[in-house]
Specification:
There is one protein chain. The protein is mostly helical. Helix 4 runs antiparallel to helix 7 and helix 6 runs parallel beside helix 8. It starts with a helix and ends with a helix. It binds 3-hydroxybutanoyl-coenzyme A.
């Protein structure tokens, strides 16, 4: 049996592929693409929330937000290490982000205008990430799947703290409830876009599903997120900004309206509200960190460590 056939048979048996195993170049390429962009998303995702650390309304909320943003950094480093198990070079992967060549999740190109946004990001964005990453925790590439197991545990804390924050506002003063509703209105549709284009427009999905990297489709995961989140919004009397939302007794799903794919692809092209600002911030941070990299390089040479 040739190596490709053997690989396909291993995938069909549900085996986990490890770094030292033979794998088709395209499998490796797909994983480097997907995992590096996931890592970029974690790192860029620190920016919108990081802006509110100094403006958190209490010491407790400041500590929670600090912990969450720090977790995201750890998720990014964890997944970058996973990318390196595929032979990718960390510097070139970082370069792809800084030059705008690589993507990161569209969701992080929206501004955090009020404190309620911090809660809705935890509730919606981390909630969506949990749906996606719980699936990825069963993917065929060992290091990625194992990284997801650890990351999902922390995402659950992220989602819970976000929902608690929003519930507090929703049950607060009239102004606080309005602030929470405004944030829900602004973040709902971009959160649905996190799951990617619809299945029929998803060029990578067929290969990723064949190789059990993706075990469920973009639309399936999007629907799961909607089904999970609507009851949570109803429980705190917040309205999801979709007039077409309707519970379907037959399927047990919440049917929802059409996503604005023009907006989605515009954000992917770099024309979102904050794309420019996010890339500038990442490039500035990279430049300011040069002295740390230089110090690590000198130390490594002096003490002959890798
Ligand atoms: N934002 C940016 N780019 C997106 C996107 C999004 N929301 N959805 C899709 N794309 C891009 C894809 O990268 C692909 O472009 P490329 O071929 O140049 O890389 C193109 O649009 C077509 O989409 P596909 O559906 O064919 O691409 P995928 O099969 O890769 O599916 C995905 C997209 C669902 C995002 C998948 O890549 C995935 O599951 N990635 C891993 C998880 C991830 O990256 N999550 C991002 C959020 S991380 C996060 O939320 C952090 C948390 O702590 C808050």
């Amino acid at each position: 049996m040739d190596q490709n056939a053997e690989f396909e048979a291993r995938i069909a048996r549900g085996e986990t592929i490890e770094p030292k195993d033979w794998m088709p170049e395209d499998y490796k390429k797909q994983l480097i693409r997907m995992m590096s962009q996931h890592a970029h998303s974690e790192i860029v995702g620190m920016l919108p929330e990081g802006e509110w650390i100094t403006r958190a309304p209490s010491l407790r909320r400041k500590k929670i937000l600090l912990a969450k943003v720090q977790d995201e950094a750890g998720h990014g480093l964890y997944i970058y290490s996973g990318v390196e198990t595929l032979g990718a070079d960390r510097d070139s992967v970082t370069h792809d982000l800084l030059t705008g060549k690589a993507k990161y999740s569209s969701i992080f190109n929206y501004p955090t205008l009020t404190w309620a946004d911090i809660g809705v990001i935890g509730w919606f964005v981390d909630g969506a990430a949990i749906v996606n990453q719980t699936m990825l925790a069963k993917c065929s590439y060992g290091p990625y799947a194992r990284a997801m197991v650890r990351i999902c545990k922390e995402e659950n804390f992220h989602k819970k703290q976000g929902y608690e924050l929003v519930a507090g506002l929703a049950n607060g003063t009239k102004e606080q409830k309005e602030m929470a509703q405004d944030a829900v209105n602004r973040w709902w549709w971009p959160s649905l876009m996190m799951f990617g284009p619809s299945d029929k427009d998803s060029p990578n999905s067929p290969q990723l599903m064949k190789w059990k990297v993706k075990k469920e489709s973009n639309d399936t995961l999007r629907q799961r997120f909607v089904n999970l989140t609507i009851p949570q919004a109803n429980a705190i009397n917040l309205t999801i900004p979709d007039p077409d939302l309707k519970f379907n007794q037959e399927t047990g799903n919440w049917d929802f309206g059409e996503i604005d794919w023009t907006e989605f692809y515009e954000v992917l092209k770099g024309n979102g509200p904050c794309n420019k600002e996010r890339l500038e911030a990442r490039n500035k941070a990279f430049k300011n960190g040069e002295w740390v990299r230089e110090a690590a390089r000198v130390y490594a040479e002096k003490h002959n460590v890798q």
